[in-house]
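Quick illustration, no need to memorize.
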Amino acid sequence: MSMRCCRCVSIPTASRALRNSGRISSTPEVWPLRRFLTTSATSAPEIGESTHKSPYSASTLEGVLVELRRSSKYSFYRPKTSRVEVSISFTSLLTPFLLPQVLRGISAVNRNPLVHGLIVQLPLDSMNPIDTEKVINAVNPEKDVDGLTHINAGKLSRGDLRSCFIPCTPSGCMELIRQAGVPVVGKNALVVGRSKIVGAPMHDLLLWNHATTIIYLPLFLSSQVSRADILVVAAGKPEIVKGEWVKVGGLVIDCGINHIPGAKGKRLLGDVHQPSALQRAAFITPVPGGVGPMTVAMLMEVFLHSVTVHTSTYNSDRLWRSLGSH
């Protein structure tokens, strides 16, 4: 097992997060979030303190990684470029690793009062079989900032949006839709892909925000795509959605991260054929530089919210203990 720590140094700006009518939008979609997070990180009360100090210097976002693949490593390391001052620890469990060892590590993090967020980086790769569901659900739901435990996922599916952690990529997609000024209510929305970390929770978010939502596997896509006012693609297959299928004036959120060999080395492609889609869509997120930066911003927002909740609970419990001692 190896431990590596880093400090976040900036929330990435997503001035290129949305391409509008074939042009790069000049709207810095993440800047308002960055200002909010920076303010939050410098004004919230310290644990056990009433003055305006930052509790985040004493707070940790823990990541558990088992033999990373390149695509997941790319997305996980992006928090290094965030500007909110929090500590992010990487616990790398190198293969071969057994399930009991992973569960013991998660249990230790659950008990650590200075850790306010825990991420299990998927997919879990190991020479030994590892039950991913057991690993995910070993995380304390109150520290599950990825929103993947059964408790948080169940609350989201029932529409209890204010009482659960929501996966950061779908949450970031909703923020991008909001920034584009596209109302969700009454729109036809199509989600391509049904992964537990993007597709399924994205469907739930759109549904509970009053869109007519369909979740669709990457088969016979063209007719469904052409009717979608809001199209979210998270299929994990490069350029599976062709631009000529996209509804004219529609909004396209491309969540794909596909590493494709090229003449100058590997390059990133999304799940949508961007050049042709740009000719029809009103808004489209580029790859890279679209969904990714917003996902990181949402992760930091969720983590800082978790810190605030935990420190408030700590201060409340400490107050009652002190009153009870008199």
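The two ends are 46 Å apart (CA to CA).
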